[in-house]
Fold this protein.
Amino acid sequence: MEINDFIKCVAEQYEEVDAQEFTPETKFKMFEEWSSLTSLSIIAAVDDEFGITLKGDDIRNATTIQDLFEAAEAKA
Amino acid sequence: MYNPFSISGKTILITGAGSGIGRSTAIIASQMGATVILVDINEEGIKETLSRIDEHKAGHSYYVVDLMDSKEVESLVEDVVCLDGLVNNVGISNTRPLHLIREEDFNLVVGLNTKAPMILTNLLYKKKKFNKGASIVFTSSLAGLYTFTPANGLYSLSKSALTSYAKSCAVEFAVREIRSNCVNPSMVNTHLKESLSFSEDEYKKDVEKYPLKRYAEPEEVAKAIVFLLSDASSYITGHTLLVDGGRSLK
Ligand SMILES: NC(=O)c1ccc[n+]([C@@H]2O[C@H](COP(=O)([O-])OP(=O)(O)OC[C@H]3O[C@@H](n4cnc5c(N)ncnc54)[C@H](O)[C@@H]3O)[C@@H](O)[C@H]2O)c1
């Protein structure tokens, strides 16, 4: 799993934010459109794309995309 | 003592009896003098349930069956004795946003939540395995009836279809005096709840939507199921009994 593919997968779950804005340091829960639906979309999309099942708590404990990537890698 | 709520002497088959609501229903029904037939795919779960049932009362039995497998269901129906009660309780959750639902998700969720109870019930009826006056209870859900929450669309769909099937059973099976009803719980503290990938914060917010300010325990759903199995509900059929702590009012 490459960090860039992971960022792209997360970015695709946002409707309003431009994909260019996402970097490993992006605090992905700070955007106005963030909701539990975004969270569940990320969980499902990461599962589809990388076969890794994140939990609600992984999302809760992560601040940046890098944090989430590391949580996903730990489960790979 | 006159007690129309008794289910003593009745033979009741319960699916998904290896965990959660099914397990509680089996325990309470046996404590109330019913003979229970436990069905689940998970043998360990069934055995755990059995260990909590008064084993001195003979007659209880179990079947390890994958209810998605029609061959296994056919041999279950062939083998099983005639029933006074059937609790179609098996079910699985799914929390995918609509646009990320895959065909395999649809086949699993609708297959287990809707198709499996329908196939089992139809076959039991066809093979005349229901005694006159039997009661069928489905564990449906508040989802798909009153609550439509994000990323719960597939589950809601499967449960509203199940609720509709239960009503059709009430109409068609009445010729044999068979009743058919649903219990429709909101959130219950079971494995299924744990699989929902909510965070603690989300649970805290969600529970605020309940006038009783807590989720149900599985026994609280089981008691509603037992009521619908008993003769106390002899004129209730085609009903959806909300077991929701008032959630639908908010
Ligand atoms: N827990 C809730 O919040 C809640 C709310 C509303 C409705 N419900 C409904 O209540 C019912 C029971 O749910 P629960 O919370 O006790 O769930 P649970 O996950 O604790 O138990 C489900 C049981 O079904 C069994 N099972 C799964 N697949 C099977 C298969 N193919 N064949 C046979 N058995 C199989 C499992 O082994 C398990 O023992 C379900 O229909 C569910 O949709 C639950």
User: Anything to note?
Assistant: The mean pLDDT of chain A is 94. Chain A has one domain: 3-75. Chain A touches chain B at residues 35-37, 40-41, 43-45, 48, 54-57, 59-60 (CB under 8 Å).
